[in-house]
Amino acid sequence: MGEEAQGLTAPPRRPTINDVAARSGVAASTVSRAFSRPDRVKSTTRERIAVAAEQLGYVPSDHPTERVPARQGSVAVLVPDITNPFFFDFIRSTQHQLRTAGYTQMLVDTQEDVDLEAGYLEEFRTSAVGFILAATRLKDEQLTAAAARTPLVVLNRETPGVPSVVIGTAEAAQQALEHLYSLGHRDIAYIAGPPTSWSDGRRWAALEQMADQLGATVRRLGPYHPSQRSGAAAADTLLNSGASACIAFNDVLAIGILVRLHERGVDVPGEISVVGCDDVFGSDFCNPPLTTLASPIEQAGRVATDLLISRMRPDLAQGRSQVVLPAHLKTRSSTGPLARRG
Fold first, then answer.
1. 329 in Cβ contact with 293 (< 8 Å)
2. Residues 301, 93: contact at Cβ < 8 Å?
3. How confident is the model at residue 53 (pLDDT cuts 50, 70, 90)?
4. Which residues form a coiled coil (predicted)?
5. Domain ranges of the chain
6. Tens-digit pLDDT profile for residues 155-168
7. Are 130 and 104 in contact (CB under 8 A)?
């Protein structure tokens, strides 16, 4: 006899992590984090999630595969240089968040090429349900048009109408300039990155403003490709400029500068002080260890993913569309007092 004839009914469906997310108005990844790493979720959010879980009768499982919801599509994560260690933690963070929420990550290296990035964005329109663009080199109008077609979030870029996560390296660069000024440096160089980099322009504007306030001279050298290989040419230009200190666009460029200065017998920081940006893995292993602008890149990946998921899931409450994460100066041995000459 069939189940209906026997008066039996199918067991009720167990509530899932997505049910709790919808009830509490957050992303599924936030629900997962509230149970697995509660210290990384605000107390008010944790309480809301706990109430929703209790109302639904949801019990988190200890089995990893049971915590992962069914696949909901692929998200393309585009980065300008996959070999840049700045993006390592970002990529790992977005992948974890997306997997927890039921999405697959497609990683794309745009090779610092604007046309290549635009081409990939068009190519993956039909196969990706959303995009995360890290340090995009596209123009505002391109981003606006893309965001109107497909859910999209950008890292380190501000474009009206496009959700974004910005790391405050411009303000941290001002901290670096004040630090160098306090050490006696009055002629300081900024080793610029790609001309299409939005962050580069922001840092330079912030440095000019702070230099005016301090009465210091800041000069822009470059642009340079943000790689260690370009550091040699940047170091040679730096030595010819007469500046006693420099702030580099990123750590890998700064590390290349340190290597070249060592080859030329220049003492760091005795003769020239060097500051990087990003605090990537290995920046504290340099000779000397690199003073740098520390960026919360892993957090940026989590926040960017949550912003994207909130756009892809209309059942979830829409939160902030722009988030700014502070960066800060981390002093090490590559900066020191200006040596008296002559």
1. yes
2. yes
3. confident
4. none
5. 17-65, 72-167+296-326, 169-295
6. 999 999 999 999 99
7. no
Q: Using CA atoms, how far apart are residues 278 and 299, in angstroms rounded to an integer?
A: 13
CA separation for the pair 175, 196 (Å, rounded): 24
101 within 8 A of 95, measured Cβ to Cβ: no
* pTM: predicted TM-score of the whole model, two decimal places: 0.79
Contact yes or no for 33/24 (Cβ under 8 A)? no
Question: Using CA atoms, how far apart are residues 309 and 77, in angstroms rounded to an integer?
Answer: 13
DSSP assigned state of 174: H
Single-letter code of the amino acid located at 25: G
Give domain 169-295's CATH superfamily: Response regulator (3.40.50.2300)
Cβ-based neighbours of 11, under 8 Å, separated by 6 or more: none
* CATH classification number, 72-167+296-326, choose in 3.30.450.20, 3.40.50.1400, 3.40.50.2300, 3.30.70.2640: 3.40.50.2300
The angle subtended at Cα 200 by Cα 198 and Cα 203, nearest 5°, is 110
